[in-house]
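User: Reviewer 2 asked us to show a designed sequence for the structure in our supplementary figure. I'm pasting the structure tokens here. Could you produce the per-position amino acids so we can include them in the response letter?
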């Protein structure tokens, strides 16, 4: 039986990470303890949270650890773009708060979205070489403390990228955090992506997307799990090949829809030479499950609704998703 956890990124407005479209911040951001209570009420086994630097002192970590213990929950920590000091801080924190035999810290490679590496401003190859150098600085600490680092495909990395970074940094420490919706953003099929990276997967974000036909490609819009284009049962079957104990995170996509312009020839400039056939996996999913471009994809956030409405929508989608995975047969 799979044990699922609650990722804090499911409720970005509620956590105070993004304001409403009119600039209004949430009045009372969700606390770590409240998110733990949400996980318990949804029948989940843990939480994935981002711990701010001021909370990484002895007292702050003890508070978080004790709150999780009191609720019988495990913790996976989420860092940002690979940064030596932030990773060191999170590796130490994970040894205190996780409750796992093999703690995990998730990180991302870049902030590129929609698969559009043109926004990076430099070659992907040069950029990932610099990321690898940073990883190698923290691998000895992670190895010594028994903490695994999971690199997410944050709409930037292909399956090949994740495998090469893991192998180059050291697979005994570094692996992948598979975000199930994001392979579409780099024109890979999510199930095929999962099959390729399964031996390296240390963490999972179970995220669904609705796909809408759009100029030069398609849009990916947030939705509750089971209501979009992602074959979760197929992905979870592939992930049985992972050598690690996985606690997949239930996650809802970011508030803004993502416009993947893979039919724009310039979109491919950020990649090594790829055959034209590489466009087909995402297009096959689009042709099978895509929604007409004249259908409104906007959610309460993108429609400019109130902070209260945006928060209500976030919790509704998350709770429906948690229920979906509790009932999913794999």
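Assistant: Here is a per-position design you can include in the supplement:
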């Amino acid at each position: 039986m799979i044990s699922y956890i609650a990722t804090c990124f499911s409720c970005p407005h509620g956590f105070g990470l993004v304001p409403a479209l009119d600039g209004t911040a949430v009045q009372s951001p969700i606390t770590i303890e409240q998110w733990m209570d949400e996980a318990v009420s949804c029948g989940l086994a843990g939480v994935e949270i981002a711990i701010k630097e001021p909370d990484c002192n002895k007292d702050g970590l003890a508070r978080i650890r004790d709150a999780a213990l009191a609720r019988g929950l495990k913790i996976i920590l989420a860092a940002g773009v690979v940064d030596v000091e932030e990773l060191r801080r999170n590796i130490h924190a994970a040894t205190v708060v996780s409750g796992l035999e093999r703690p995990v810290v998730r990180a991302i490679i870049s902030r590129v979205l929609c698969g559009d590496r043109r926004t990076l401003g430099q070659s992907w190859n040069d950029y990932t070489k610099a990321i690898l150098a940073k990883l190698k600085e923290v691998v000895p600490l992670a190895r010594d403390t028994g903490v695994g680092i999971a690199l997410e495909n944050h709409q930037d990395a292909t399956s090949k990228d994740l495998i090469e970074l893991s192998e180059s940094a050291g697979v005994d420490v570094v692996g992948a955090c598979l975000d199930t919706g994001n392979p579409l953003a780099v024109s890979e099929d999510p199930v095929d992506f999962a099959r390729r990276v399964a031996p390296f997967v240390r963490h999972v974000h179970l995220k669904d997307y609705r796909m809408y036909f759009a100029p030069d490609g398609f849009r990916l819009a947030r939705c509750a799990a089971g209501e979009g284009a992602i074959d979760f049962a197929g992905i979870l079957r592939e992930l049985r090949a992972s050598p690690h104990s996985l606690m997949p995170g239930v996650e809802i996509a970011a508030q803004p829809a993502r416009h993947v312009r893979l039919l724009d020839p310039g979109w491919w400039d950020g990649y090594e030479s790829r055959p034209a056939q590489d466009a087909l996996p995402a297009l096959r999913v689009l042709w099978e499950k895509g929604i007409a471009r004249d259908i409104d994809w906007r959610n309460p956030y993108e429609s400019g609704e109130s902070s209260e409405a945006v928060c209500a929508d976030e919790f509704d989608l998350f709770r429906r998703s948690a229920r979906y995975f509790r009932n999913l047969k794999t």
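For the response letter, you might also mention the following. Residues 13 and 19 are 6 Å apart (CA to CA). The longest strand covers residues 74-81.
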